[in-house]
Predict the 3D structure of the following.
Amino acid sequence: MKSLLKFITCGSVDDGKSTLIGHMLYEAKLLFADQERALELDSRLGSRGGKIDYSLLLDGLIAEREQGITIDVAYRYFTTDHRSFIVADTPGHEEYTRNMAVGASFADLAVILVDATKGIITQTKRHTRICALMGIKHLVLAVNKMDLVDFDTEKFAEIKEEFSRITTEFRFESIQVIPVSATEGDNITAKSPNTPWYKGLPLLPYLESVDVHTSDDVKPFMMPIQRVCRPDHTFRGFQGQIEAGRIAVGDELITLPSREKAKVKRILVTDQDRNSAHAGQPVTIQLDREVDVSRGCVFTKDNQLKEADSFSATILWMDDSVLTPGKDVLVKVGTKVLPGTVTAINYKIDINTGNTVTTDHLVKNELAKCEFSLADGIVFDSFEKNKSIGGFILIDRVTNMTSACGVIDEALQGSDNVVRIDTEVTRDVRAQQKGQQPLTLWLTGTVLDNLALAKEIEKRLVARGYHTMLIDNRLGESVQQIAAYATLLNDAGLIALVPAGSANDNDQAIAHDLIGRAFLPIEAAASIEEAAQDVVKRVVKALIQDSYSI
Amino acid sequence: MDKLMLDSIDATTHLDQLEAEAIYIIREVAAECENPVMLYSIGKDSSVMLHLALKAFYPEKPPFPFLHIDTTWKFKEMIEFRDRKAKEFGIKMLVHSNQEGIEQGINPFDHGSAYTDIMKTQALKQGLDKYGFTAAFGGGRRDEEKSRAKERIFSFRNKNHAWDPKNQRPEMWKLFNTRINKGESIRVFPISNWTEKDIWQYIRRENIDIVPLYMAKERPVVNRDGQIIMADDERMRLEPGEKIEMMKMRFRTLGCYPLTGGALSEADTLDAIIEETLGAVSSERTTRVIDQEEAGSMERRKREGYF
């Protein structure tokens, strides 16, 4: 049986992209007889004086352009004696960056076209960057229109050298540079007599033979759980696709994030019992003991996977809306979806040059380094090591649009950089010393000005001898961040006051989880004077009774 | 790298990859979508989809029902096949027909394109709305026609079941976004990347049962404007001068019998069908095959009565 190669072509019509693919299909006899006749007939009317215009075969995109329809990814399917191919044909212009990214995310290899008369241009650099970002490891640079530069070996060497210069910053596993003429057919399916100095394979034979098999099989075993299979009380299996490595019956694996160890009792590859399974296979795994695992958890044999609730990442913003820090989003990593917040935009990366620019917002098709904070921890790895749990998408919580895609760079230590040291002086000791209990007053509601109310409450509490601290969220920090500050204040034995804005059940639940027993939600509706009086009364009562159930 | 490792790499064929991709998608929908359904049209693509669903959840049954939109004009053998398979696999098979259409006597002989709209398109919307399905698996493939070549695997429908090709969500890696607002729904195409050839090869590899109408057999047919139409029941109307004859023939696609043209054929085994199907799209000059079905093939299907 043949293997499958998924590849993407990058370049514009001017580079001869459609002609290149068209010619490849034609030369490789991959057309129906009727298609071939139609092509010959159509070409007689064309601009090549009766010579065949191969680009007519891929007229879909050209027609789209003429009609001004949004240009999108189109998929084509073909088979040769050696391999099956799926090619994603994507637009090359900058305004269609996101469409190209969609095509690239699906591919194992990219064929990037340059015009030999023009050499490496800005567009080439952009395409290379997007391919690298989306995880493509194998490149072909097709130096087209070699006939127009008289198959000049020096010209070719120049382009090849410049390309190797611009690709050094990325980690491609293979790069093949091929001199071609799409219109004349040099080095498309057969070695061209015009380029005796080129020792490599022509384009199609190269695509038929290139090994794009990633090293997924030899990495440590890893599988994100898609679902728990429970047909009846006697069977509990974990279903997912193995993303790296292999697993065999009897192997011990580790569950994340619960960090339990268990042995594999049974492996089903689809509906067949197997002694072992490897990367790329859909499996159902039964373990020898009960574990705390559900969808979104990860099985591994390796202890190197990371777990964090905040990380930095490189993202491609794809939404029509503008991204500013503080935006609440849903983050999907592997099979896990979690609420989170974009806490910072560190800098924007010029998609053409790679230069960095500081910014406070992002618009569609911009690339940037950002920081994220999540409602809970996620298991992840660097995109380089494990694509399937290193890449993520952002989903808009209101429109449900897929607003961005990104790759995780590293976990953020964040507040972990400066840590509170646990000593014998505990939270209780500190609170006792102040004659109070630590509390976080979480003020919600839209009727009153929460900040003004908080100030009023604080004034009254301090007047009664209590120790407080009021924190306000001016920079759109995430609820997790605010909760962390409040917890720190509580640890110091203080009463924290947080004007949290409008009531949001989700945020409130997150805050409650993180702050724990000291959490005291307050939604006030009367006048500030009355509300403050009322709240203080409740707080004092709570402090006296040492009870938080008010 | 040891021998064992190499074996496992070699063992992954393009059909394995396509199967793994489809199963991953089917499991994601079952895990994330509130109320999914798998559309079942009884054809060969549906047979493959059902087979994939059974494999995806084994030993559990597919955790969603199947829905057949019955125009009431399907071949008898299709209906028998549907009921037999539902029983054999123990799956929940829902059948919906447009009752208003039936009451109004809408039929393929008198109502032309209105028939298709009322008994198929409207009936499908009714069926999905009736059960409040939020996600519907379909067996559409990108090689079928040019517009499908650009459709995402997860394709969004608004409250009126309409698709907006200009506003498709970007689909990256395997990170499918299944979020919708109330009233909206998703059509999911797990076999988007399969070609007709892949379908047939997979049917052979997996021994998937298909409706016998795909195999050549002597059948009562009428030659109408160059199309071979089977007289499947007494409702078949004959034009003046037409007569029913027995001919050895088979169908390449299945639908409503008065609208589905067959072809004279001797192919009565799976291998013979595969040979015939793949042979038909080969250029004379080569044994290589292009899987891309061009505009001509859609036209061909339309001529055969495929809608």
In short: Chain A has four domains: 3-213, 216-300, 306-416, 427-545. DSSP finds 13 helices and 27 strands in chain A. Residues 471 and 485 of chain A are 8 Å apart (CA to CA).
